[in-house]
Amino acid sequence: MSFSTSVKPYGVGKLVTLASPALQITISTLGATIHSVKVFQPQQKRWVEVNMQYSSHDEALADCGTYFGATVGRFAGRVGNGRFVLDNVEYHTPKNAGEHTIHGGGNAFDKKEWGFVISPNSETGVSVAFNYTSPHMENGFPAELACKVVYAIDKKNPNALRVDFAADITDSSPAEATIVNMFNHAYWNLNGFPERDPGQRWAQAEPVHNHYLRMPNSDLVAETNSSAIPNGRLVPVKGALDFRTGCAIGKGIADAAALNRDPCGYDHPYFVSGWKPHGPLRLNAEVSSPSTGIMMQVYSTFPCVWVYTANNLKAGASGKPGDRFARYTAVAIEPQQLPDAANWKSFPQSVVRRGSPYRETMVNVFHVSSAASKV
């Protein structure tokens, strides 16, 4: 297969596919969302779906709270108590997670139809740019913000997906500054997902307990309460939270005392050691499945990487519409800003001003080992 792009209808929007000999990446205009990621296994001569997602536009639009594969913003992650202060002005955001704001509040970036422009096939590779302009005071956030997300596969790296995030305050914006935490909320299962016919009951994927996770640059984790709201401190990792030398996710996933989550599991923001503002890509994590031999390396320019093992999904999901996926059948590896950063000056800030834009990059590199079990 050569490099190619294609477009097909998806509800009121579109699905755009970027393809290389090693990857097939499909993105939805609904939320500039990663809809599908297929990795080619040369030994088995087959494509393996590794991205958790609904197959129909209606299901994706109706879902509230999972954010499968979506571009989340304006300030995703957490805003504690639905408030923050910027330039001595207090702002209030929708409380859509108890007393707090999560992923920009309800009806945020993930529920918007984004415009898109496909770059002509070139000698360098294939790419598509998604665009959305967030109005001044949308969900309580000041400034009109022009947002752009570019997905690309380079011919020099046909097994890598690069995602560039950009946000600029527009010339016509009534406000001069805002806070931004825009990133992608993909969920992964490198064991592979079964076929997903929208009219059928879905079989569940194998849980990710067998995934081997290594995070060599995560010496510190943001200390949080049971709702994942930070207290402004970065503390050394230890025990079940220490993935610096690598271990199976299942080893510590049930350690309730260490993880402090209900339902129990990983839902934690790690600081990327050695991070510098506007610095180079750094390895955030690598995760692999012994079942398929697929490994994913995640690099980014972000200061934080959040690890979430889909704890809040239903333990005994039926596989029927509205109840498709079961708890622990995916892991999200999410490069982003530190949560609630605007309320903690001890954290790196992510304030965008006119002439001082938001620019971040994430690269997911996929490898396939010939030593994998044949499934």
Question: Your description of this structure?
Answer:
This protein is mainly beta and 375 residues long. The chain has a single domain (4-368), classed as Beta-galactosidase, Chain A, domain 5, CATH 2.70.98. It contains 2 helices and 27 strands. It has helices at residues 57-62, 256-259; strands at residues 4-10, 13-19, 23-28, 33-41, 46-49, 71-72, 78-79, 83-86, 89-92, 101-102, 115-118, 125-134, 145-154, 157-169, 177-179, 183-184, 212-214, 220-224, 230-236, 247-248, 267-271, 282-288, 294-300, 304-308, 332-336, 351-353, 358-368. The strands form 7 sheets. Strands 11-12-13-14-27-23-22-17-20 form a 9-stranded antiparallel sheet, with no helix packed on it. Strands 1-2-3-4-5 form a 5-stranded antiparallel sheet, with no helix packed on it. A hairpin with a 4-residue loop joins β4 and β5 (46-49). The radius of gyration is 19 Å and the shape is globular. The mean pLDDT is 96.
Summarize the structure.
This protein has helices at about 55-60, 255-260; strands at about 5-10, 15-20, 25-30, 35-40, 45-50, 70, 80, 85, 90, 100, 115-120, 125-135, 145-155, 155-170, 175-180, 185, 210-215, 220-225, 230-235, 245-250, 265-270, 280-290, 295-300, 305-310, 330-335, 350-355, 360-370. The chain is an all-beta fold. The chain starts with a strand and ends in a 7-residue tail after the last strand.
